[in-house]
Amino acid sequence: MGTPHNEAASGAFAKTVLMPGDPLRAKFIAENFLEDAKLVNNVRGIQGYTGTYHGTPVSVMASGMGVPSIGIYSHELFHFYDVDNIIRVGTAGGISPKLKLRDVVMAQGACTDSNYAHQFNLPGTFAPIADFTLLETAVAVARRMGVEPPVGNLFSSDVFYNKAGNTLDWGKMGVLAIEMETAALYCNAAEAGKRALTICTISDSLVTGEELPPADRQTSFTQMMSIALETAVEMAKKG
Ligand code: HPA
What we know:
By secondary structure, this protein is an alpha/beta fold. Helices cover 31% and strands 26% of the residues.
């Protein structure tokens, strides 16, 4: 089998796939967190690996940047590779003044300026939300590690260099942070009847203009990865 974007064989992906945006991040995760990781996809350099974490099969594959890209890859994982759970592991820019750099945020929902949900032909506005079981499992795992994650709305934007300059307006509605993928991922999970969750580390703040230095990015990234991988293990136990 295979798709135009994925050359992996049927059954090559585990039931849970972690999705960073960056293919080199996918490689790093496979090499540093998984055991016996094998490359299963490399079409367009979108590296996908399957290995085990503490004995549980787990895959990691890059999503690329933005709604169209994660829209394609998550659709194919859910529909053609029988994947049950996708956990996006990314970075986001803080919109809420309550967030600090390095916070590990869980996306309960995702607002968006994307037209992605238009394709579902609904007579209103669809609200993309996380799967509750995945979310509650990830929150419990984080608390076990001594981390109290902020949980709430993200804003999935189609635009990184936004000329309108009004992104912080989303903060008036309690939105926590901006990234570029979650709304499409949650729409696809809903359409497929599968589960999805986004976990993001706050890499920069639109409120203060601060940015994480590269060395610090690594530490908060490691904490986010431990939460995501332990969540994959818990989900395998739940069956
Ligand atoms: N905008 C969009 N996506 C992001 C940002 C941002 O400021 N920071 C991290 N991901």
